[in-house]
Design a protein that fits this description.
The chain is about 5% helix and about 50% strand. It has 1 helix and 11 strands, in the order βββββββββαββ. The longest helix is centred in the C-terminal third of the chain and has 4 residues. It is globular. The termini are far apart.
Length: about 130
């Protein structure tokens, strides 16, 4: 079955950096767009970033553009999120996401309705 396992969360001061990783298994990873979402306390889960199966095209939420970078390694079945210049408002549980089928492009994956599988999440806390 599909498994998405995130790692790399933690506590960091504002202005610092963290790198999240997601190890995927149970499906043909290189054929799927992938993404990252986050959910802050008391708020709905929101799109952060997605990328195409090749990694050549990426999409970012306006709130993270220029600070976060999504990437993937199809040889290792991993997708990563490099987060720089972190702000307290970036505090959230971060989720790795995969669509339910390979026909969902990265541009559609920005909508959580198109996510077929979620990881368990990793907590990122940014202190001021």
């Amino acid at each position: 079955q599909v498994q998405l396992v995130e790692s790399g969360g933690g506590l960091v001061q504002a202005g610092g950096s963290l790198r999240l990783s997601c190890a995927a298994s149970g499906f043909t990873f290189r054929g799927y767009a992938m993404g990252w979402f986050r959910q802050a306390p008391g708020k709905e889960r929101e799109f952060v970033a997605t990328l195409t199966w090749s990694g050549e095209s990426t999409f970012y939420a306006d709130s993270v553009k220029g600070r976060f970078t999504i990437s993937r390694d199809n040889a290792k079945n991993t997708v990563s999120l490099q987060m720089n210049s972190l702000k307290p408002e970036d505090t959230a549980v971060y989720y790795c996401a995969a669509p339910g089928n390979p026909a969902v492009p990265a541009g559609m994956l920005v909508n959580p309705r198109h996510v077929g599988n979620w990881g368990q999440g990793t907590l990122v806390t940014v202190s001021s």
